[in-house]
Amino acid sequence: MRKMISTYEGFVTSLVNGGSIDSCEQIQSLWSGYGEILRIHLRGGDHSSVILKHIRLPQAAEHPRGWNSTLSHQRKVKSYQVETHWYQHYASLCTQGCPVPKCLGVSASFNESNKDSIKESNSETFMLLTDLSAAGFSQVKTSIPLQEVRACLSWLAHFHATFLQHSSEGLWDCGTYWHLDTRPDELAALDDQRLKQAAPWIDQALKQSHYQTLVHGDAKLANFCFAPANSTVSASPVAAVDFQYVGAGCGMKDVAYFMGSCLSDAECEQLEVPLLEYYFQVLRSAVNKLHPQVDAAHLEHEWRSLFDVAWADFHRFLKGWSPGHWKINSYSEQLTQRVIQRLGSAL
Questions:
Q1: 42 in Cβ contact with 131 (< 8 Å)
Q2: Least crowded by CB within 10 Å, which of 3, 77, 123, 135?
């Protein structure tokens, strides 16, 4: 353990204003063996604990579903470049309605001077962040009640309003990890021929949305951290992490993906209308406050029409990537077929 700490001790202690490392623990390994996330407990200084994201590029990644390729590797490397840039240049812009960790510092093998390069083995980056658990967001959940579903949708609405029509420089030109341009292998593997033919239409409908924002890009339940009930630590009872796939896009991509991550197909069908109504209620309020020049009603009208399109977009990726995935259900098929029929008749 002491040897492991010595690899980043100088970097950490230089950023925590007099604190020293007491101990560390691994929170999780990064996807496909690309590093780890550590919680570092400190003595003295301004923080009782901090989070260190240690990105270490492997010589040969092992994808859990067998999707190993140069394209896959380059996508992951870029995702960490994007996340580094996000925390350095965008995270501080988040409002009280969409809290995120603060960036304390980055020691990067891919940085502003070589951010377009793809470094191979032995490249590593250290990203030091504030600990959301120490800030009061101490709970990560695998299932949530309806009240907390709404809390996450409120976070998304504030996030989308905050970055409405904002530049995405340094981030993904098209946010999310499943968008069509970066998933040719999964499209080729897709057996659903109608959906395969419709995929470019679906992609274009989302890209041509007049109202673009920044989307989180991986807004699943596992990437939200909750404050305990009755906590008053923040204006929001939930914060979010993991910004590897943040970039430009229609906000419905996050909303559809999030709902699919925590609700069954029956719940999605039953709750689609009230949950969308709640999201847009919060979005209208936030947009009117932050961007009074924007026609919030027109924005809502456009995005409502793209909810099922965004759902079909992720469904296309999922059916090519993992045809037996639990998220491939009757509700998703129903929405997707509706989109295919509507877009097809419009061409």
A1: no
A2: 3
- Would the pTM of this model clear 0.85, i.e. be above it? yes
Average pLDDT value for residue range 256-273: 96
What are the sequence ranges of the domains in the chain?
Answer: 1-89+100-134, 136-347
The beta strands (E) that lie in 48-102 are given as 49-56
pLDDT tens digits, one per residue of 143-159: 999 999 999 999 999 99
CB atoms within 10 A of CB 309: 25
Give the span between the Cα atoms of 211 and 341, in whole angstroms: 24
Domain at 1-89+100-134: CATH code = 3.30.200.20
Decide: 274 and 281 in contact? Cβ < 8 Å.
no
pLDDT tens profile 114-123? 444 434 444 7
Name the CATH architecture for the domain at 136-347.
Alpha-Beta Complex (3.90)
d(CA 182, CA 294): 31
Residue-by-residue DSSP string for 226-270: EPPTT--SSSSSEEE---TT-EEE-THHHHHHHHHHHS-HHHHHH
- State how far the Cα of 332 lies from the Cα of 335, in Å rounded to an integer: 5
Amino acid identity for residue 268 in this structure: C
Nearest 10 degrees: Cα torsion 290, 83, 225, 166: 10
What does the chain come to in residues?
Answer: 347
The number of beta carbons lying within 10 Å of the beta carbon of residue 177 is 19
d(CA 316, CA 181): 13
Average pLDDT estimate for 81-104 = 96
Q: What is the pLDDT of residue 63?
A: 46
Residue 245 near residue 266 (C-beta atoms within 8 A): no
Element (H, E) at 141: none
- Amino acid identity at 16: V
- By the 10 Å C-beta count (0-12 exposed, 13-18 middle, 19+ buried), 167 is classed as exposed
307/119 Cα distance (integer angstroms): 38
Backbone angles phi, psi at 51, to 5 degrees: -110, 130
Instruction: State whether residue 137 is helix, strand or coil.
Output: coil
